[in-house]
Write a structure and sequence with these properties.
Helix content is about 50%, strand content about 10%. By secondary structure, it is an alpha/beta fold. The protein folds into 5 domains: about 80 residues, Gyrase A, domain 2; about 90 residues, no CATH class; about 110 residues, Rossmann fold (3-Layer(aba) Sandwich); about 60 residues, no CATH class; about 110 residues, Orthogonal Bundle (Isoleucyl-tRNA Synthetase, Domain 1). Bound molecules: arginine.
């Protein structure tokens, strides 16, 4: 159990024993040291419900509270807060436990879930562009965190490989011949096809027929479509590998995979008496949603004259994920504009029994990346920014920074550091935002060595590692944190100790809220606590037990930083 939960449990039982039924203790880290390490504010709500004086109620709770093994002091503050001051010896004991634990105190879930994380999921008509970045890295971080907690995570790359755009791409491919080169730049290829489609009626007709032929299983169309997908997916894989994102070819299950199941989805909606007809189209009326004219919404699943939609495919996918994959929780990481789509699809799936009520269907929305003009992020000439180009620039910007900061190293070193720092900075800048808001993309901010950035965290890590190199060079190697006992002698040590113990509750919070920025915020506080400790407490110059304890704190800090960055999908370097 994480530290916060331990306190929550103790105080909740005391509230209950004091007659507060099962009111939660609502424990959180204190905002200021004078309020202790943690503060509980659940007494107020419980007292209000019982119509009694909150301070008096808090007194009764303290009488019932059994916590002297953990806390050296508990006191009532303000209108009925309970401030908890933890015992140093207890903190040291727990630190010893997490130091000896490979997972740094993060306990596996008592009831692991099977979680499907649907992320990245680009439409394969074009090259990956900035619009795909957020889903790809937020989804990847969430998948890693959920997996670390012992859940079975199934990554699903729900690529758009079946839309009407393939008609025009296939027709253009036929026109320009089968030369491999024509597909080298998917972006150009898409643009040329689109131009032909918009300008030439005959081309457009042929393109429309090509879609029908493709979906009917025509050999030639299928073959070229497959070729197109292979190239497109290989391009995606290149981006994933460069980004250090864990998606592989095995995670791809595109829209086309559900094609044969779509008539069955419609039939099953019919059996569930949900299906209706409106202007020739078939779909589901939802009283819970309104359309533009303030009438109940009609969600089309089959167009008049045939043809299925994005929503139909998602309904089929839900059934596959709950049925075949056994998912009990499904996350959809897409931008917030798809919020209504998912709300409607989830509701229909529940009504139709495609997902039972215990299964958690969650849209994980995010805002936009903006340029410094506050408008959607574009190239200087106003075009879409290709991810490949963005990643190349990230490395170039980072290389310049590192060459400036540490001159005189060899080129291989710079290349490795530039990759870790550049890609790390790009990812961290995104993950550190509250994902629901838009954010302004700025190289200088994300590469800054001060502030809540990847380079700052990577430097903190490398700096700790250098302490150990120095110790080894001086012939006084240090025992690592798994062996040495930790003692608290100074306030800065204590502060760092508490932060280290909060790693587990942070990870639990990220998994519960699907908010990676919580982990970044924690890392920033941890690094700050370390810096204060390092300024206030000599490490290599201290002696005996103090020295080994401080070295153990250093080592544990480095391990937590490294693990946290790894969960965010960011590399660390031993030396920068
Ligand atoms: N391909 C879609 C797009 O680019 C995202 C798919 C998200 N996943 C899903 N199951 N609908 O907007």
């Amino acid at each position: 159990m994480n530290l916060r939960d331990v306190l929550e449990q103790r105080i909740s039982s005391a509230i209950q024993a004091a007659g507060g039924e099962d009111a939660p203790a609502m424990v959180a880290p204190s905002a200021k040291p004078q309020f202790g390490d943690y503060q509980a504010n659940g007494c107020m709500a419980a007292a209000k419900r019982m119509e009694t004086n909150p301070r008096q109620f808090a007194e009764t709770v303290l009488d019932k509270l059994d916590i002297s093994d953990i806390a050296q002091k508990v006191e009532i503050a303000g209108p009925g807060f309970i401030n908890i001051f933890l015992r140093d010896e207890w903190l040291c004991g727990r630190l010893g436990d997490i130091a000896a634990d490979e997972k740094l105190g993060v306990a596996a879930k008592a009831q692991p879930q099977t979680v499907v994380v649907d992320y990245s999921s680009p439409n394969l008509a074009k090259e990956m562009h900035v619009g795909h970045l957020r889903s790809t890295i937020i989804g990847d971080a969430l998948a890693r965190v959920l997996e670390f907690l012992g859940n079975k995570v199934i990554r699903q790359n729900h690529v758009g490989d079946w839309g009407t755009q393939f008609g025009m791409l296939l027709t253009h491919l036929d026109e320009v011949g089968q030369s491999g080169e024509s597909l080298a730049d998917l972006e150009d290829f898409y643009r040329d096809s689109k131009k032909r489609f918009d300008e030439d009626e005959d081309f457009a007709d042929t393109a429309r027929q090509a879609v029908v032929k493709l979906q009917a299983g025509d050999e030639h169309c299928r073959e070229n479509w497959r070729r197109f997908l292979d190239i497109s997916l290989a391009h995606c894989q290149e981006v994933y590998d460069l980004l250090g994102v864990q998606l592989t070819a095995a995670d791809v299950r595109g829209e086309s995979a559900y094609n044969d199941d779509l008539p069955r989805v419609v039939a099953d909606l019919d059996t569930a008496t949900l299906l209706a007809e409106s202007q020739g189209a078939r779909g589901v009326f939802l009283d819970e949603f309104k359309n533009k004219d303030d009438e109940r919404a009609f969600i089309i699943v089959e167009k008049s004259g045939g043809g299925y939609l994005y929503a139909t495919t998602d309904l089929a996918a839900i059934r596959y994920r709950t049925g075949e994959l056994g998912a009990t929780r499904i996350l959809y990481v897409t931008d917030s504009r798809q919020g209504q789509h998912f709300a409607q699809v989830f509701l229909i799936a529940q009504k139709a029994g495609f997902a039972s009520p215990e299964i958690s269907l969650e849209h994980v929305p995010f805002g936009m990346m903006l340029g410094d003009d506050g408008k959607p992020f574009k190239t200087r000439t106003g075009g879409t920014v290709k991810l490949m180009d963005l990643l190349a620039q990230a490395r170039a910007e980072a290389e310049e920074l590192v060459r400036r900061k540490t001159p005189g190293l060899d080129d291989d070193h710079y290349a490795a550091v530039a990759k870790a720092v550049g890609i790390g900075a790009l990812k961290y800048a995104d993950l550190a935002q509250n994902r629901t808001s838009d954010y302004v993309f700025a190289w200088d901010k994300m590469l800054s060595l001060e502030g809540n950035t990847a380079p700052y965290m990577q430097y903190a890590y490398a700096r700790i590692r250098s302490i150990f190199r120095k110790a080894a060079e001086a012939g006084e190697p240090a025992a690592d944190s798994q062996e040495a006992g930790i003692v608290i002698t100074a306030p800065a040590e204590r502060n760092l100790a508490v932060k280290l113990l909060q790693f587990a509750e942070t990870i639990d919070a990220v998994a519960a809220t699907t908010m990676p920025n919580i982990l970044c915020g924690y890392l920033f506080e941890l690094a700050g606590a370390f810096m204060s400790f390092y300024e206030a407490c000599p490490v290599l110059k201290s002696h005996g037990q103090t020295r080994s304890s401080r070295l153990a704190l250093c080592d544990l800090t480095a391990r937590v930083i490294q693990k946290a960055l790894e969960l965010l999908g960011i590399e660390t370097l031993e030396q920068m």
